[in-house]
Amino acid sequence: MSKRSRLDFKPTHYRASHWYTLKVFNGRWVFSSSLLHGSGHRLVWSGIARRAAAKGIHGLIDPLLTLVFPEDCRICGASLKTISRVPVCDRCLSEPQPLCAEYACSACRMPFVSAFPLDETGRCSLCRLGLLNFDAVYSYGSYAGTLRTLVHLLKFEKMHTLARPLSGLILRMLPREQRFDFIVPVPLHWWRRKQRGFNQSELLAKEIGARWNAPVAHALRRVRATTPQTGLTNAKRRANLRGAFQTASKFAKGALQDTRILLVDDVITTGTSAAACAAVLKRAGAAHVAVAAVARTDRRLDLPIFALSTAAAGGNS
Question: How many CB atoms lie within 10 A of CB 45?
């Protein structure tokens, strides 16, 4: 069966069309389904009736399809018991925990092992020097373990359906009283986007915008391809990104004046990329730029003592 093979089931129960679509992701079967009104029989159902019909159909067909086309969780390898557009079990999806730190910068929320890098106001050196440009940061967990694997499945395995649960983690961290005029994804250079086929930050931004009731604005362009940031110092990272971002043409003439923007990325490493984007947005007139990400790099995990204490705490829980 070719990679584009598709198997559709269309039962006629309830005079509604319920399509089960079987797709292949890197040699693995993944299912998706949607309940649609039948074009030949237009019926008006209550929400309860629709949900009952869908549940009944799922109850009949889910066990059959999982028996014929078994699928394993892409993280732990356990067999999935229900049809899902996300080939990850519920246990693995719920495993990532929020990042906890006794000491963290009051501005950028970078976690630290001790209070030594923080001043009397609780700010780190980068924030004291005004190098980060954004006003707030909301990220869910440490870029490690299961959460790192989930981000990789979205970003490198092209499992777009993971954008919904991962954006849900970001939404847990956003204060409900916050108002944003635009949700802006961190852009990819056109060549990188062509190679990957999509921008993972844009997928996350669309999910957040739909659930936060705020428009997604492609207000930034990445006009220069940059060398990988891995291994560079903070100063070299800033130099590497200098001039890499610009305001999109239709947002260049006052469209962002006095706006509140949520800048969305998948991972915050040092905050340099987000800072470069925030600087461009503020030069275009934005009054407030907050950054949201699924995960952030926790450099405390690089310290042997902290890693050992974290492992011990996990073993005693």
Answer: 14
